[in-house]
Amino acid sequence: MAVNGPLRLQKYLAQCGLASRRKAEEMIRQGRVSVDGKVVIDMGFCLTGNTQTVRLDGKIAILQDKTVTLLLNKPKGFVTTLSDPQGRPIVTSLLRGLKVRVFPVGRLDLDTEGALILTSDGELAESIQHPRFEVKKTYEAVVSGRPARQGLNQLEQGIMLEGKKTSPASIGKLKELNHATRVTITIHEGRKRQVKKMFASIGNPVLSLKRIAYGQLFLKDLPVGAYRILTADDIKKIFL
Ligand code: URA
Question: CA 26 to CA 29: how far, in whole Å?
């Protein structure tokens, strides 16, 4: 490794492209990281030179000088973790031809499809997920019935979910279908099953859900199951 000056272990793991800094902290806490053969669980631990060997789950962690970030159109039925004890298909199995190891930024439910960013850049992953940047995520939901304007207004203003108010959301186009309504919703939080819980709370459960954009970066016509490598301009759009 090439470390110039003290470098926090979690930051090092992020720069190796193994996870976001926050996820790396979780890995350290779980005792999965060692330095020169000794497990380190101290979050303040700093690497100080170029001669230390860092391992995650026993495998040497090597700094990467080039990062790759891509946008995948996740199909339903795939999990957004890097492994699955239940043996369900994992999203990275869709990345044939990609030489660099990438990890998903955030999550999508098993039965949700659409835009999923994967990256080898732990710092970028951290920024996309950090509440400070309020990265907008837009979903197209098919919900049962016809949501009342009052219910949608409540969702826009914020509702109580598990004891905490949701941040303001914005509701876009509505299209009436048979016994259902297609609606777009933009939120910047990333609580578990948030969109489903929000619509369930106003009496219109989600029947199907697709994420169509991060910020101004839209899936557009990317086929389900396909991915494309993002340029620096694409990455800027995530934060717009
Ligand atoms: N909200 C949900 O309910 N599910 C997702 O997969 C993403 C956002």
Answer: 5
Q: Choose the catalytic residue: 65, 109, 111, 233.
A: 109
Which ligand 1 atom lies nearest to the CA of residue 196?
A: 3
- CB burial of residue 106 (10 Å; 0-12, 13-18, 19+): middle
Same CATH topology for 69-131+220-238 and 136-214: the answer is yes
109 is catalytic: yes
CA geometry: angle 9, 14, 20, nearest 5 deg: 115
- pLDDT string in tens for the chain (240-residue length): 556 678 999 999 988 888 889 999 999 999 999 999 999 999 999 998 778 999 999 999 988 878 899 999 999 999 999 889 999 999 999 998 898 889 999 899 999 999 999 999 999 999 999 999 999 999 999 999 999 999 999 999 999 999 999 999 999 989 999 999 999 999 999 899 999 999 999 999 999 999 999 999 999 999 999 999 999 999 999 999
CA of 214 to the centre of ligand 1 (A): 13
Q: What fold characterizes domain 69-131+220-238?
A: Alpha-Beta Plaits (3.30.70)
Q: Which protein residues touch ligand 1 with a CB less than 6 Å away?
A: 108-109, 112, 193-196, 209
Hey, what CATH topology would domain 7-60 get? 3.10.290
Pick the CATH number of 136-214 from 3.40.50.150, 3.30.70.1560, 3.40.190.100, 3.40.50.12780: 3.30.70.1560
Report domain extents, the chain: 7-60, 69-131+220-238, 136-214
Q: pTM value?
A: 0.86
